[in-house]
Amino acid sequence: MDNAIGTNRRSGRWLFSFICLGAIAAVALGALAAWQADVQRSRADEMESHAASAALLQGAGVEARASAELLRTYVETGDEALLPQFQSHATVALEGVTGAAAQGAESARVIAGQGSGLIESAGQVIALRKVGDVQGAAAAMEQMSLAFEGLSVELENAIVAEQGKAATLEDSAASADALSSRLLLAGLIAGGLVAIGAVAFATGAIFGRRTPKTASPI
Known about the structure:
single chain, disordered N terminus
């Protein structure tokens, strides 16, 4: 009888230890799952920022090419009705690059500065054409075109860089999300085992107190 009581007590201590360790594991796994969820959200936000920067830079490239073509046509024809369109496209292009810089695209700041310089050069081209200096305007336009081509290459490189960062962060966010889900599942399993252990411990404690009385010897 004494041996049985001792065995029950040892089993109860082991079960209690298991419950404590399981509870610690469940809490730790839950905390890790929450941390990974925060990581996933952070990387998803960064991914969206870089994707937005890439889209803004792409739009800026389209607008810049349109403005360059309008300016070239103006130099050739002298049609001043083209100037408001040129100014509109150039302004939208610069705003797109500036917006990408605000999103965190580092190279966009440099490109924005160069774009502002090109707009100033365009003003000189327009001034020459307005006074009838067609050859001077054409020569200035040619020099400006070389600078524009270089800027276009930088713009394309910036777009590729931003798209690459967005893709990398998207993969990283997906990995963090998957890990968070696995940790949460493990935490739930640990919590379930703790609950089962607690029930078993409580049941053992209740029935352990109901030890049968030994019959008195006749």
